[in-house]
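Example record for the data management plan.
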Amino acid sequence: MAAYCAKTHPSCEAVISSGDNFYDSGVTSVNDKQWRESFEDVYTAPSLQVPWHACLGNHDHQYNRWKHQIEYSSTSSRWKMLDRYYFVDFDYSTFRIRYIFIDTTPLIKSYQTRFGFDGDALRALDSSGEQMRWLNQTLRGSSAQFNIVVGHHPVYSASKHGDTDELTDILLPVLNDNNVTAYISGHDHNLQYLTRTFPESSPSSPSVSNHTLHQFVTGAGSKTDSYMKNHPHLYYDLPSNGFISMSFNSSSVTVEFRGVDSNEPLYDVRIPAIL
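Corresponding structural encoding:
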């Protein structure tokens, strides 16, 4: 990733992390040694001295430690997790990109009874559905040509964890109603591109039709999982280490899948701007 950013013109402007930022159970404070061992002393290349915008994963939530990653944003020049859910705009002369980061773990009921998780605390984080209302309002209020939502858990996945039922029920309608450019997730430790076109209009947003959901699973920055199964919406997968890059112009974004040893992209997807 450092080599790719070093040769990119202009250089990479930011890094996006799709959650599970620290294994196995998040960080215990802003002084936890993992900040050095897993972040500051690892990504030392000059090309990676850019903002790192991150969302929370399920491992980051264990033992209710998630808040320390938000707190670290006030002490770090690079780490930028502004809240459990937040957005960041990138403005250019002819277009705008809005990245919207969400916190998917409290939306998934099974974590409320798992070892290492505080069920009552998780329920309290989203007991009223506030996050999805915020997401809907943030998307509806956006004037960006590219609205990209980032959350840890995938809506669809062809790997070990499979589809996330709660997200197909409550997140997918918001993504479709607002014609999002793409949804980026992690959780499964590989790279996937899944896409599905929804020809029907939504009752709450009848002007939206033929929306194509572009979902990218990018969870292969460290450990990997080669298990893959047939999935009706899977178009590409890479069960080894790698990452995706995104490059924009006023008319489209190109998403490229990159392996650790490849100079050229292994697969690419071009998505048009929102008109």
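Summary line stored alongside the record: The chain has eight helices and 13 strands.
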